[in-house]
Amino acid sequence: MDVYDSNVWVWGLTEKAPAAVEKIDEVRAGDRYVGISAYIHGEVTEAFNRAASAENSEIREMKREFNVIVAKRHNVEFPGHEAIGSMDIHEVRRQQPIRLLASAWGIQAKDVPIIMFAEELSGETTVFTTDDPLADFDPERADVDGVVVEHIPTA
Prior knowledge:
This protein is of the alpha/beta class and 155 residues long. It has one domain (2-151): Rossmann fold, CATH 3.40.50. 54% of the residues lie in helices and 11% in strands. The protein contains 9 helices and 5 strands, in the order βααβααβααααβαβ. It starts with a strand and ends with a strand.
């Protein structure tokens, strides 16, 4: 199973990066199995809510498309509505264990929950990200088993 960092979802759904669009299309086609945590869902939703450059109707459509993909696809592992409703991504990032792991791993606190979620999934998990600092993270050196990070270019 794979995990798409929120930025892959945003770049792909807004059709701003061809490689990210391809990843989203693989999910739509049922060719790729992905897991989405309440945290990742919260990050994607917040990113669309922050989008000042798009029309409100465009933002609503992108959020709707994201929710349809993750809730209606057989190849997406998706948390329940209760978990999504109670998710506060900023509170998660402020938690001491998250901050300590970020420091120890040399990544941003916002990325720790993504790596933790990927490690919880069964089997080998690839985290796809457009974020250069996260792409540089080596899970093996951090004793994170079964997780690989792959960079998705935005240009």
